[in-house]
Design goal:
The protein is an alpha/beta fold and 264 residues long. It has 8 helices and 13 strands.
Amino acid sequence: MIRSIALGAFDGIHLAHKELIQRVEGVAIIERGNGKLTPGFVRQQYIAKPTFFYHFEKIKELSAKEFVEMLKVDFPNLEKIVVGYDFYFGKNKEGGAKLLQELFHQGVDVIDEIMLDGISIHSRVIKEALSAGDITLANRLLGREYKILGDIIKGQGIGKEKLVPTINLDVKEYILPKEGVYTSYTHIDGEVYRSVSFVGHRESTDGSFAVETHILDEAIEPKCSKIAIEFIDLIRDNKKFDDLDALKKQIDIDIKTARQQHEG
């Protein structure tokens, strides 16, 4: 029996989202498209409450009034809705928080903008930080390390033979950080390993785009088909090297830096 819900997109489940969620019994998520901080049901990893999904494509033609009526049917015991200050709903974003208060008479709490050290905690701000390679800021606003999940795929085969062994990922739904090399943690078969990860185009070899991770100080052969990477800090931007020897020397430096950051 859900009497109160937080309503919104909740992409990221960042610190401001958690402020809404802690005030209610359940969470209703409006899900739309790819390119997310936390796509689809991944959000439930960070919400310890009943979670319900509305797919945007199925509700986008509803008027604001029809949307509220749908909520009343889906949550017959609903007494309170909690939304953020920038929440919009209904066809063509017809309604905002004020209209929601007018249409849902039982009670609507609107949470004002939440800041951290003068910075708005907002999914847009986190995405901008990731695009700039500012993993530290993104993680602070999230309240956790930014994490992506991908399918294990076959790589070039060059790494294990001439550079360092890596696990290659096909990442489809997540926003990826700026191209570069990162100190990271890699989740494999229920275990977490210290790692250094690369995101970007292989400028020094075939030019293809890759997401790959190297496990520090351990030889791991995954049994699972999916693994996750948590990004800790940017080591350096992506760049092109003259040959594989120069690339190998830089990778060795990257690994040393990652070890220091993990131990620091």
